[in-house]
């Protein structure tokens, strides 16, 4: 496909965008702080879509492709960030606030109210995911629906956890009740690639466990949170959820330096994570729950079923243009099968449908980060200068924000693609002779999220499983790397994660066990019975949630 025909995939004018996916720019001039939508008259940041249109309308325009304006949002500063922090601190009130003191049943009720309101925004949210980050319609829809399911699953799991902690324990002459308690103020920062889902998979369990929240929207995928602010405002007591808008470098450091953040939850880079953690004056008081960098590797063994390997590697490396932390970011193929694998894989990559997010069946879409196509071109140039080639027809062709996926081979140590997390539509392929080369790669890699093994011999697969499970956190057999199902632990080693996220793990991550205990004497039993039977305490109680 020539550059001209790649350019023709962008709409020539607005009439080529289906009416139901057109969007009127949304100019957000308010943000959520302490239960109020605060008006903002200061600086704003324009949001440009990766979807481009030729600039015909402007006088003197030459038809150059221009990113379309989706709207704008407030760029608040340190002052507003500290106000938001104070609101969250006050709402928590050292654990004595209305929210941390509310019964689990009460918190669940508020969350159910929130989901109902969130569902009213489904259509707009999906459209904004497409416009702001270029995710295709099917995946944007899946992101919204998966998030709603995640919230309902989290509620069910919390009910189960609460039911099992509603009993007293009697051991070694001590009677006690153990329940999970909140941790305090949580600073939550989500990523651009799953701006709704990955933000909410931390935000929702953090709220449900009784914490209060400062919630920083991602740089790309910020506007889509706007319609949800009113839902947060009207579903939870004031100060429980507070938004932070603006440049991370301006608003986050003062919040961290205050020492008042108890939990940092970030889906992003390990570099940013390190910088933020270091700002906290008492690191020992900070809990971090983070999903970070990854360079998930797939290995194709000599006896692999190549049909399966091609299909799964295609999905694994190029869904949402390879912009998933769980994407397969490097493929190791045994030298005896590498040519055959490339012969089958490369045409499939070239066949992926490139287009606009709303076009039916589109798999490759425009990239949201303005400098991304240049970065991708640079790392390919580096590999080519060091002896690799682009193996598929049309691979690496670029126009504006569109980049045709490229299979690059042979990739080896010394090339940037060998170690860097490309987070985009490039598939580096390495040929290996001895399995030890692959294991050594994983040992020396800074990442440790997931790996995929493709093979048919149970002995060979088993020999790899045992070392791999201690180098990464999930080993997939004849399957792509992925986070789901959301009940599975989602974590990583080395620079890939801190803490674990899954429906149940997240509830644990955002809480701590607290116990109330007494010696087993008649007098103490009488006191406990009085408290429980008269419902004098929220914590010390045998109330049961159905
Ligand atoms: O970007 C990381 C996501 O959590 C990956 O989720 O594997 O379901 O696409 P996924």
Key terms:
2 domains; binds glyceraldehyde-3-phosphate; Aldehyde Dehydrogenase, Chain A, domain 2; alpha/beta; single chain; Aldehyde Dehydrogenase, Chain A, domain 1; six-stranded mixed sheet; 546 residues; 38% helix; seven-stranded mixed sheet; globular
List the helices and strands and how they pair.
Blueprint lengths: L2 H5 L18 E2 L2 E4 L2 E4 L4 E11 L10 E10 L3 H15 L5 H4 L2 H17 L1 H12 L3 H28 L4 E3 L2 E9 L2 E5 L7 H12 L3 E5 L9 H10 L5 E4 L3 H10 L5 E5 L2 H10 L7 E5 L4 E5 L5 H13 L9 E7 L3 H14 L20 H14 L3 E2 L7 E2 L2 E2 L2 E4 L6 H4 L6 E7 L2 H10 L5 E5 L3 H11 L5 E4 L19 E2 L4 H7 L1 E9 L2 H12 L13
Parallel strand pairs: 1-5, 8-9, 8-11, 9-10, 11-12, 13-14, 13-20, 14-19, 18-19, 20-21
Antiparallel strand pairs: 2-3, 4-5, 6-7, 7-23, 12-22, 15-18, 16-17
Helix pairs in contact: 2-9, 4-6, 4-8, 5-6, 6-7, 7-17, 11-12
The structure holds glyceraldehyde-3-phosphate (G3H).
Glyceraldehyde-3-phosphate binds next to loops.
